[in-house]
Here is the input.
Amino acid sequence: MSSTDLFKNTVSVRKFSQKPVEEEHVKALTSAIKGCFSMDNRQPWKVIIVRDEQLKKSIASACSNGKGFLEAPLAVVVCGLPDEAYPTLGGFINSYTVDAGILIERISSVAKHLGMQTDWVYVFKEEKIKEIIRAPEEARVVSLTPLGIADEISALPPAKQLHEIVAFDHF
Here is the structure.
């Protein structure tokens, strides 16, 4: 898959296959996580890759639309670590949210390159997720996703026109 094809045709996964993720692919994902850049290379995150079926069921119950966690062979939880991040990115925000966003895109891109899909879940009960994965108090759950081979996909609504989202020289 070419790098331009990687970012075309964004889809929404409606159903995941229960086919296990090859160990070689898990290693590729963990290598991509390790090599992902962040502000000052602080890597203010902890990624929890969940294989245990009972834990995935618990995660699903703590999300607004968690059925993918019941189907996919893996769940990925990205936690930000504010105390390890650059404190004031842009003068107003801790960098862990931006750094975690970069990491989330990296995980999704590598998964897609390996023939798998993610379906990021953004509405969840953070305290419940932290309890399930035994995260420390200072960790912040930024996002989670089931990860595996898609059995059923659907296209997302059309993207905005380029002129609506990109400008040159001035806003």
Notes: Helices lie at 3-6, 23-35, 53-61, 67-71, 96-113, 126-133, 162-165. The radius of gyration is 17 Å. The mean pLDDT is 92.
